[in-house]
Fold:
Amino acid sequence: MSHTAIDSAFTTPPAASPSLEEFWMPFTGNRAFKRAPRLLVSAKDMHYTAADGRQILDGTAGLWCVNAGHCREPITAAIREQAGVLDYAPPFQLGHPLAFELAQRVAAMLPGDLDHIFFGNSGSEAVDSALKIALAYWQAKGEPRRARFVGRARGYHGVGFGGIAVGGIAANQRQFASQLLPAVDHLPHTHDLARNAFAHGQPAHGAELADALEQLVAKHGADTIAAVIVEPMAGSTGVLIPPVGYLERLRAICDRHGILLIFDEVITGFGRLGAPFAATRFGVQPDMLTMAKGITNATVPMGAVAVRGGIYDTVMNGVASGIELFHGYTYSGHPLAAAAGLATLSLYETEGLFERSRAMEPHLERAVHSLRGARHVIDVRNIGLVGAVELEPRDGAPGARAFETFLKCFEAGVLVRSSGDNIAISPPLIVSEAEIDRIVTVLRDAIQRVE
Ligand SMILES: Cc1ncc(COP(=O)(O)O)c(C=O)c1O
Structure:
């Protein structure tokens, strides 16, 4: 590169309002968005401020991640301070104290012996790390034939190659179908409107759907299956709450056949269901647990996998010396993320936000179920600080009604999330009863006005 070329690479004048063209936005209709953008410029506690100055009540904790509310001073101060002390430290063959401290704190919050923590930077990385750890574990244990994974229809496990393969969303696979993981099966999803519509909390019917795992065992042989991965509550595909007894049954089948059970708690972790983790709330112990989002209150990207001590020990003992797991990221346990994580966990604790989430559950339950009977509404679901409304799909345009509802709510100053024909609500855990009422009032009005 000549000097002139290098100089010109930096000479683009800063624009007062930037061009929207160059940023290829993720999971977004880029062309439509860029014609009519929705830009957020700042946030505090329960509200965003849009570029046009409007206050938007955050009914979704960003993307299920800002559990303590926005721009909380104890967290932002910890990040600012850490940036001036130790901006970065390589995590390969070196370390820094905060990553160890955070791992210890997270392990202490987790149920059972999920006591070793591997850090990445996102939910997707956490999931792919968990799948790789499962394979490494079975190799170290002398059972390398255990290499199949089992996911679930309508599961979302991020966008890595492992995550989309075990995930159960056709749209996320279609463009990449020529190269997915080869040995993956899917359990049926648990969403059953015919039997469970308008259930409060966990639906009564569907525990037997876990038995599909027995059929996969019969088909492939248990000694070929490495792990089953499920979201204890599927979030991204529309809030699918586990039927009573379902997770327990899945755990029992995994135990019977020595299969690892991975809970993907990227959404359900850190208080969303009124407990530290869904595993805690449902009293079902996974062998590995993936997390991200709420671990830093979404201020600095971070993801993690927790594994049971026995899994860690087996991988450690799998080699005589040297590196035990050939896997990791430049930013595993990044100092800013670790500082943010520690401050976030302290804030959850000092403000009792997980307890608050549980205490607010009945109010959110009453509020969302008041939408039963509203136009287009064919189901309402709730658990913890999560609510969902399912709309009857418009003929020939699945998902359109929910997306238009999201747009109308945004115009009215409330952020909800659309997914297929579902609208999900998952406010920060600091939400007040009046704010829940406002979210639901605006949502009701939007649903009534959508064609
Ligand atoms: C259950 C689950 N797993 C994984 C992911 C992926 O996380 P990320 O977008 O941070 O990669 C998500 C994101 O919503 C998720 O809900």
The chain has a mean pLDDT of 96. Residues 122-124, 127, 156-158, 231, 235-236, 264, 266-267, 292 surround pyridoxal-5'-phosphate (CB under 6 Å). The two ends are 56 Å apart (CA to CA).
